Amino acid sequence: MADIASRPQFTGSRVTRLEDARLVSGQGRYLDDVEFPGMLEVAFVRSNRPAAKILKIDVEAARKLPGVKAVWTHEDCPLGIKNAGFDCTQWVLAKDEVRYVGEPVVAIAAESRYVAEDAADLVQIQYEALPPVLDVRTALKESTRQVHEGKSNVFFHRERKTDGFDEAFAAAEHRLSETFIFHRQTGAAMENRAFAAVTDPFTGRLTCYCGHQSPHELRSELCEMLDLPENMVRVVVPEVGGAFGIKASMYPEYLVVAWMALKLRRPVKWISDRQESFLADVHARDGVHDVEVAFNSDGTIVALKDHMMADGGAYTAVPFCGAIGETVTAASVLTGPYKIPHQATVIDCTYSNKTPLGAYRGVWGPIASFIQEGVVDRVARYLKMDPAEVRRVNMLSDEDFPYRNPSKMVYDKGSYLQSMEDALRLIGYEDFRKRQAELRKQGRYIGIGISVFVEPTASASSEAGSVGYEACTVRVEPNGTVTAALGLGPTGQGHETTMAQLIADQLGVDVTDVVVLHGDTDSAPFGGGTGGSRSGTIGGGAAITAGREMRQKLIKLAAHALEASEEDIELCDGKAYVTGVPAKSMTIRELAQLAYTNVKGLPPGMQPGLEVVARYLPPFRVSFSNGTHIAAVEVHTDTGKIDVIDYAVVNDCGNLINPTIVEGQIHGGVAQGIGEAFLEELRYDRDGQLVTTSMQDYLLPASVEVPRMKIEHIQTPSAAEGGFKGMGEGSLIAAPAALIGAVSDALEPFGVMVNAMPVTPAQVLAWVDQAETSA
Amino acid sequence: METTKAREVVQITLQVNGEAHTVEVEPRMLLADVIRHKLGLTGTHVGCEQGVCGACTVLVDGEPQRSCLMFAVQAQGHDITTIEGVTPESGLSPLQAAFQKHHGLQCGFCTPAMILTSEALLRKHPNPDEAQVREALSGNLCRCTGYQFIVDSVLDAAAQASKKEGQ
Amino acid sequence: MKPAAFEYVRPDNLQGALAALRDHPDGKVLAGGQSLIPLMNFRLSRPQALVDISHLTELTGISVVDGAVEVGALVRHQQLHEHEEVRRLLPVLSEAAGEVGHWAIRNRGTLGGSLTHADPAAELPAAAVALRATVVLANADGQREVPAESFFLGFLTTDIQPDEILVAVRFPVPPADVRYGFAEFARRPGDFALAGAFVEMGGDASGSITWFGVSGGPERRELDFPDDAQARKAAFAELAAEFDTGEDAVYRRKLAVTVAEQAYQKAREGRR
Ligand SMILES: Cc1cc2nc3c(=O)[nH]c(=O)nc-3n(C[C@H](O)[C@H](O)[C@H](O)COP(=O)(O)OP(=O)(O)OC[C@H]3O[C@@H](n4cnc5c(N)ncnc54)[C@H](O)[C@@H]3O)c2cc1C
Ligand code: FES
Ligand code: FES
């Protein structure tokens, strides 16, 4: 039996995507394209107060409006969302009290969204204001009002310290401290969130449509919260217009819509508008970190200390509380690729009167990277050393793997130092430094920022839930084409292509003969979904495993039919051959017909049909991807504008399934990194109103902000099937730190070390000013 | 002069993708909603209803405009082209094929409007340089791709077209 | 985000539009809709009636009459940007029109709409002030003309009356020795400017600057431009210090100086 996997035709090659033909011609079916006769549309009346008691809700006028079917308050839909880890429930329609601007209070179902909004206008709510809690430092004070009466504002506290930390910290030759600040941001997918539900009058089953990253997780949550058995609920994830973590959560609107479909016996749908999206999609990155670092004169860093504070918002999101992810996970890889032996962390996650914090691509990553790289850059500047050199001094080297970091995370083999050296070459580091010196003389400021990242991927638990494995069914249809199904929740990553590449190579068929289904709990096997950079590795492992099982079955069948031994059968070009006797062959189609229709022709003991389901659990808790991003920027000291003038990436995510898709993921993550570093900020005013509720205020990078990137790959295989590592988040983990580092480097003559993201033009000018006045 | 009272419905005829469609609408209905939900042409997407994201862009008399910032009643007498109108009966248009070839899309939500805007650009400037392409597409946001492969797609489609022209 | 219901009036011509406006005191004119419809989608604006003028071809002309370029109210920003005569006679106007929003917005937004909406950060109101344009307003009873400088009354407010339609804007062709420069700064191209400026320079050092984005509306100031760069920036800063900038005052004032200097340099390069 020849080993197909050793000479794959599709795995690793730049296969164009199978999903594209429908998408480029406008034939993709996104959620708002799902319609049923009699469908009602929902609008919500949301709290316009950050914190208030609800005194009275008057819905009479709204109920009377023609075209309105239902106007619901808490009493009509007394469901709640509760994260099992915490003592806090969010009622899907606020009960007695509102805790953030945007919290749903009243739900209206009407014949159209236009009418639903007309009715929403007629609802009157009387509030009694409470003093809002708006930032983490305030929330931490004993004297601050409790966001949830009777419960501490600190919903999570943890302290960790390596043995000998204090001694090491005290013994070091130098110490520096800095506060790092992360402003609120969000995933802002181009397609807004949405949910539709319809019941089948005959079976009573509830079908829910939702752009979600984990179809089975969503079903489990719906069943639990609606108290329905799992075989009575079907979740269908249609085409999804981007997700980036925000579509991994359970949201109040989903339960309201499902409940309405059940109670009103009508198909119901809710499509978020963009304003709702900014108010009510989970937010991310709201943290303050008081950091101290101890190091020696040769640049070696010996100890790192961080008081990590995260503002979790009003409720602990389900299933993934962002504040926890952004601190606990950050703490577990805070030293990144540097061999820093000692670490001490104190974590505080608090409630506030702001939108709940959930997942956004990279979650903890941009935070930990910014701190880890920011610390290295500060050490370099303090010691007047080259930043690349300080990195070399501290970097993990080949003999260190497997490396156990101070948080006891084990890194598998990577290419940390090599990725940095390659990236330095790609960007032309030495030349850049020369150019920088020349331009400075002319009053122009360019800078370079290095970000060497670690990306824990394919881990057992992530925002996609805590299912550590993935499952795949592979069915060869009677005509020889292949249908596979996985429990993943792709939202643009191209799984229909990458999974098909893996399966096609196992079966020796053309990649276009493999159709990959996903996102329908009726057809897909139970799986964890997409999040935490797990699909390629764990989903890919499942696809390979299922493909291999099918291959074995086909080989057995062919050997029997062709009267050859199994070792001599080769699957290739849609056929089974006998090695060395090319005339002796059968097409997959012939084999399939045999399997389905000629029960007597099967080898003894073989079941008819060609269908397998396989599950794959990787042999590790987590696998680390790595790489280096280097950004070059020019900072204009007359306007404060920052232009990204060059960008290099060297990425190592193990073996590549499809380099083009990997590069697309990198491009997208870097663009988001530019947003994170320079543009995107969810701003609350002093009264607790979110003031960035439109795309004119929440600035996303456009085509002119994002530079051309130079990308190279290194492939250090993981121990997983196929040798893949995850890579969906690495680019956004690394990019902000590189970009911010470049700004600090550019503004070095002004003594600037950036400590907050995003950096605004106004901030840049303030720094320049300050330096000029003090000079 | 025609007057339609609030909440009253009027019958209008829209010329979309070369075909006349007669539909009943309230004057307040946005062109995007009518194209999507009355004509069933769901390739036009809605991302912000504020003119910023660009996902709803259609061609009005050949020029890109926002269908979320126009009432359907105003579109009477104009030629509207949606993504369905630039898709050949079989296969893909050169631009569509270039987007596939260069991985110019991920989730695909921004894609129809990107293609329509690029279509209009190439009609106006058959050989744009990279800066022109980026400028023309700067009103179409994409959260997935980081734009590089989109720009490559458009530049390649232009290059292919001028190669053909030259032959 | 769906607009509230309104009565929709589609007149056949300008006279009809003016009559409709007289009969609907709580009605609003709908031109390109690029400012009005977003506000309606957010339900920040809920007009009882809309008088749609977007299809009235009588307001779409650009002509050169008596040493002035007369631009119809419905001329789209992109048309203004690309128009040959405008490019030749009023290059800064063309340049500024090209900076309004994105291509798709410019293909629909109109000059009349931009001036009437009077966003403080809008390019074209400031261009009208800088270029000493005259705004032509009509109601059912007749027309009146208002110098651009007195048309803008502050944040989103102008001298236009509820029964009036802005029908045209007349830009005098500047004398041969007067040169203009235009510059603005926005976070991203297509965004409203954080600050912008038009500089007008006569044959001697005298001239004026018209700023936008730095306060409630266009701000025109006469001055003699010092030759010395430091002195010039100091003069700009002194003028900018008066603006009621609201948020980010220090930053806005600094930007005002930067864009004024950039516009000055462009004017020096000799554009008209
Ligand atoms: C995403 C986006 C970005 C933008 N960026 C910019 C920018 O950078 N700079 C900029 O200047 N603008 C920008 N705009 C606004 C754009 O320029 C608008 O086109 C313009 O402000 C309004 O013109 P309109 O024809 O669309 O007017 P409408 O929206 O139709 O009307 C605006 C107001 O003026 C009134 N009105 C319109 N025409 C007349 C008339 N002839 N007589 C009397 N009243 C009238 C209306 O009743 C309404 O109150 C942007 C818009 C969007 C959506
Ligand atoms: S939906 Fe029209 S521009 Fe975003
Ligand atoms: S491909 Fe997803 S928004 Fe562009």
Which tags fit this structure?
heterotrimer, A: 775 residues, alpha+beta, Aldehyde Oxidoreductase, domain 4, Aldehyde Oxidoreductase, domain 3, 7-stranded mixed sheet, 6-stranded mixed sheet, 31 strands, 30% helix, disordered N terminus, B: 167 residues, Ubiquitin-like (UB roll), DNA polymerase, domain 1, 2 domains, 17% strand, binds flavin-adenine dinucleotide
CATH architectural type of the largest domain in chain A: 2-Layer Sandwich
Give the bound compounds: flavin-adenine dinucleotide, FE2/S2 (inorganic) cluster
Number of strands of chain C: 14
Overall SS class of chain A: alpha+beta
Measure the end-to-end span of chain C. 44 Å
The CATH topology of the largest domain in chain C is given as: Uridine Diphospho-n-acetylenolpyruvylglucosamine Reductase, domain 3
- Spatial strand order of the main sheet of chain C: 4-5-10-6-7
Going by helix content, strand content and strand pairing, the class of chain C is: alpha+beta
Residue stretches of chain C low in confidence (pLDDT < 50, at least 5 long) are none
Counting structural domains of chain A, the number is 3
Q: Helical segment tally of chain A?
A: 19
Q: pLDDT average of chain A, as an integer?
A: 95
- SSE topology string of chain C: EHEHEEEHHHHHHEEHEEEEEEEHH
Estimate percent helicity of chain C: 25-40%
Shape of chain C: globular
- Which geometry of chain A do the CA atoms define? globular
